[in-house]
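Morning - magnesium ion inputs below, output right after.
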Amino acid sequence: MIDYEDALARVLAEAPLLPPEQMPTEQALGRILASNIVSPGPLPPFDNSAMDGFALPGGAGVVPAGSEFDVEGECAAGEMPAVTSAGAWEVMTGACMPFGCDAIVPIEQVEVVSMHADGRPARIRLQVDVPRGQHLRHAGEDVGTGERVAVAGDRVDAAMQTLLIALGVAGIDARRRPRVVVITTGRELVADPAIPLRPGQIRDSNACFLRARLQAAGAEVVGVCTIGDDADVFSAHLRDAMSQQVDIVVSTGAVSMGRYDFIPDALTRAGANVLFHKVRMRPGKPILAARLCAGMLFFGLPGNPASTAVGMRFFVEPVIRAMLGMSTEQPLLLPLAARYEKRPALRMHLKARVRLDTDGRLGVHLLDGQESFRIRPLLEANAWAVIAADVKQIDAGTCVQVVGRGHLEPIELT
Ligand code: AMP
Ligand code: MG
């Protein structure tokens, strides 16, 4: 049995950085960048008007109220920039700033002194003083050419996708998503939720859990299968997964000390290199990790739902992050709402709810029902609280490490 930190370090040492793949920016939502992105040009791309109004010819000092200008023409968004001789130009929001102009006066702040026959303004008078540069958006004011706007390891969210599209970055390099196969084991399991259970049978809830959590963590689930406690069938699925060159195989069940816990032997027979088996933690102590072959990892998670959840959150997810080139996740430190005591020298992963207390402060509430067979507390939990192995008690108000349900999911306060 080893400590969590040592166990995690062993698998991280075997986790390869996945190769980059090019894709259109439009399809990159949720993907992790494989390279930095610098702006190929200025944003906005040209000087333009922030208002519907009139561009005034350039000069020194404030243009005083009462000044009058002939209107030379009109310039809307999308049109070629105009050039002023000495007069004003009617401009719409987003229109190129006419060459020779240097301030915008909003339409509400001018009086139209005379009009052309078609109703367009011919001469205007200012009702207010107009400072130079007013209501002008300068080229590159938002993002300058060559500025770094994103770094490798960043996740493409809607904001980043929007900026990249605005800059004309049509394609990006994303890390290939880790390809994962899930094998749930147990002769008691029934995969199809519509089939009635015979006595002694239970539903295979881990399969659905892992599929959802893996996808939320940025992995591509290429297969999920439910098998009995049959080492030969397991070995066949393992060989299949290896021939498909997946990055990670996750199994549940059959890693404890029971008669049907066949996975450690099956792995040895398959030539896998077991990195650890049993970690000083709860739940999920019997967890096993192995290197199947170069760059291919195996996680054997214990079958109890909370043990599977902890193995997924605290081993598989950090490995997915490493494969995607993301930095190590930083837990939050938040105050515990009530005193907590524990006996065993195990690192604890506790289902928790982070709540806003009445005084507006965040507090970590450890939930009832921490037993590893329970599924229902997972609904109430919006976080995991982590208590180090050597800690025996924690007073209310003392900060503990807290992470969200998934490494890409912030703690949702409702
Ligand atoms: P095991 O790790 O195989 O000893 O299983 C531990 C406990 O988890 C047993 O009560 C199993 O019935 C239960 N279990 C195993 N696999 C699953 C699964 N896929 N879904 C729900 N419960 C499971
Ligand atoms: Mg079992």
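Note: Residues 51 and 93 are 5 Å apart (CA to CA).

O.
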